[in-house]
Amino acid sequence: MEFLSVSPESLKRAAEVLRSGGLVAFPTETVYGLGADAYNPAALARIFEAKGRPRFDPLIIHIASSGTLEDAANLSLLNSETRRKLFLLAENLWPGPLSLVLPKSEKIPGIATAGLSTAAFRLPGLVAAVELISLAGGAVAAPSANPFGALSPTRAEHVRDGLGEKADMILDGGPARIGVESTVLDMTSEKIKILRPGGTPKEKIEELIGSVQDGFFTAEDAKNTPKSGFISPGQLKSHYAPRTPLSVFSENDIFNLPWKPGDAFLFFDSPSRNTWFESLSPRPSAKAVIRVLSPSGNTLEAASRLFETLHELDSLKISRIFAQLVPLEGLGEAINDRLRRAAKLG
Ligand code: AMP
Ligand code: MG
Q1: CB atoms < 10 A from the CB of 315, how many?
Q2: Does 180 share its domain with 35?
Q3: N or C terminus: which one in the chain shows less Cβ crowding within 10 Å?
Q4: Ligand 2 mean position, distance from CA 336 (Å)
Q5: Distance from the Cα of residue 109 to its chain's centroid
């Protein structure tokens, strides 16, 4: 495995590896992806093998320009209203953390989409990623570059620790700016649905195309309904999980937990941490590990530090992580979704 910093030369090298059927882990603005040529079925099969990813979990096809959609998607199957919405989204939110599920063309092999006649497409918002995809032929399928079910990698070192020799090359482009995966939006039926909350907040989508539905399992669903209606494997209950057991708590509940030295607290903002310190005042000075995702309470910053912080807590060999759910504004929905799944709550 080659481990290289992003440069014009390493991008060229990486594109050659992709063109010859190899696997390249590369940075995007969301998380690091494990890429293979989206038109090469043997290369795609290697992604599933390297990640231990079930074959029923379709990949996101990363493209270098929205023009590639004419080739890789079958847009003639969309009605004119949906096409209008697609162009609005692509024009305003690409490049960016938004994956659009569309009818696929014959050119995308079935293995990329778990046999579905639809595929998720995304134009990533990191110049180096777009350059790589363009040099590699225009379409690169890339799930997150981690073993299936584990925490997503936000740094090249996370990829090296998780996948090691299973990738032919790892490109290091520094820490991911957004830090959670893309929002997945299904445009293949009348009712446009969010299948996975992610780096593009729902409000941004709705500003452009009007209201969309939640097709993922919300906290309410997790409480009320047994899991059914498996639409998108991104909805797997346990996913994005650290090795350390993690539980989630509402803003208030986290202040009154019984805890032991060696437990870790993951707070959303500094005021929450301070309230917790105050609640401790009658106690002896037992130590807990304390992390704050965003001192000023900004969900963008919190998202960018989420996986990074969970990776770090995992490396500290603590016994339990108590995580505070964050407010639902901005990327809050995506953060809570990842926390609930890390807690195996669905
Ligand atoms: P990942 O590549 O690990 O970030 O996740 C890809 C996720 O995108 C999958 O787990 C699905 O949830 C979603 N996805 C990809 N393709 C499709 C599709 N054709 N239909 C529905 N969901 C999809
Ligand atoms: Mg993933």
Answers
A1: 12
A2: yes
A3: N
A4: 16
A5: 23
CA 227 to chain CA mean position, Å: 21
Rounded to the nearest angstrom, the distance between the alpha carbon of 33 and the centre of ligand 2 is: 8
Q: What is the CATH number of the domain that holds 130?
A: 3.90.870.10
> Tens digit of pLDDT for each residue in 205-249?
999 999 999 987 666 655 554 443 333 444 555 667 888 999 999
For residues 78 and 174, state if they share a domain. yes
Residue 345: the pLDDT is: 72
Give the end of a domain, one of 229, 261, 282. 229
In-domain check, residue 152 = yes
Cα 135 to Cα 158: distance, rounded to the nearest angstrom: 25
Task: Give me the number of domains the chain comprises.
Answer: 2
- State the angle between helix axes of 127-135 and 8-19 in degrees (0 to 180), rounded to the nearest 10: 40
Kindly report the length of the chain.
346
| 259 vs 94: CA distance, rounded Å | 45
Q: Is 174 helix (H, G, I), strand (E, B) or coil?
A: coil
Q: What is the pLDDT of residues 255-290, one digit of tens each?
A: 888 888 889 999 999 999 999 988 886 665 668 899
pLDDT for res 335:
97
List the alpha helices (DSSP H) in the chain: 8-19, 41-51, 69-72, 80-93, 127-135, 156-163, 202-209, 219-224, 270-279, 299-315, 332-342
Provide the b/e sequence for 83-112 (b: ≥16 CB within 10 Å): eebbeebbeebbbbbbbbbbbbbeebbebb
**Residue nearest to ligand 1 atom 9, measured at CA:** 234
> Which residue range forms the structural domain that includes residue 213?
2-229
Distance of CA 281 from the midpoint of ligand 1 (Å): 47
Q: Do 212 and 183 share a structural domain?
A: yes
Residues 56 and 113 in one domain: yes
Handedness of CA 6, 12, 13, 15 (dihedral sign): positive
User: 204, 229, 254 — which closes off a domain?
Assistant: 229
Task: Indicate if 161 and 58 belong to the same structural domain.
Answer: yes
- The model scores a pTM over 0.90: yes
